[in-house]
Every structure is written in C-alpha cells, then in structure tokens.
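quick one, 176 residues, struct below
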Amino acid sequence: MLCRATSARTLHSITRDAAFLGLTLNDYVAGFGSYFDSDPESGEWWQGRLIYELTLGSAGWWVDVEHPESMAAIRNGAGRLLRQAGVDRLTRATLSGESRIATTIVATWIKAQTLEDGSSPLGIRYASKVGHGYSWAYWPRANKSQDTMSSDGGTEIHGTNRDLLAAAHRFGLRTA
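---
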C-alpha cells in the first residue's frame, strides 16, 4: 500500500501517528486514499487532486505559536505533557519539527484555551519550515453550527497552473 519512495523515517513517523490515533498502520494509510498510490518521483502526484478556496465567515484570533508570549504560555501550560513526551525544552524547532506527538500536544492545548477577550482561538499560525511564508491551521468546531469555515467544491488543477508550476520548481518536483 505504501509507495516505494516512502522512507523508513516517514514510515516510523506515520506509524507513531497511527498509534497516537489508536489506528493500525494499514487503517491509517487507507484513510489517505490515493495519496500514496502514486510515486512522487513520477510527476503524477498532483493529478486527480483538487484545490479548494476557503472562506472564514467570522472574525477571530489566530495564535502565532512562535511569538515569545505564546511560547511562554505553551511552556507554562503544556510543559508537563511535553516533558512526558520527551520534549525537555520548547523551541521554535519543536513547533515546526517532525514530532507529531509534540505538535499535537501544543495544538490540542492551544485549542482548549480561552483568549483574553473570552473567545476561542480560530487556529494557529507558524512560519513554514520550508522557508516560504506562513502556514495556518484551522480547527473545525465540535458543534458544526458554530463552524464558520466553508469551502467551494474544489477545482481541478491543470498542468499549466502557474502556482503548481512555481511550487514544483521551488521544491524540485516533477509535474510531467
């Protein structure tokens, strides 16, 4: 089920992710559907996928997890759980690292917080670990009627798509 390009490091990482979620590796990977069906070296990795436009229906706050005040709050609030997971020191590298256990602990702790204005955070913002801009993670609300994020039905990505070609060039990926 895993493509031949899957490294031992990736396999170990997703095995830990599956265990954390209480799933077998096969069930976890099956949840990704065709994502692992194509070899990323073949240039076909993007075909059959859609790009979605997201709309956030209300204002709110995003937590910049790399801000010193955020890191101090995380250290004070989730430090014990991080230490139990083997993270003795919270750094920016921890926040963008490969340890899904550490990043999940941080995200879960932040999601449960109430902000100074009494609202819940919409999600988190952090610098891209590949050095291009920021990444944003949104948390859908448990009560779907309170969820203000919506998306269109997705549109096909064409091989001439300017953004696809730029991203593929930047990261050395083939598109054909």
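Strands lie at 50-51, 54-56, 62-64, 123-127, 134-138, 149-151, 155-156.
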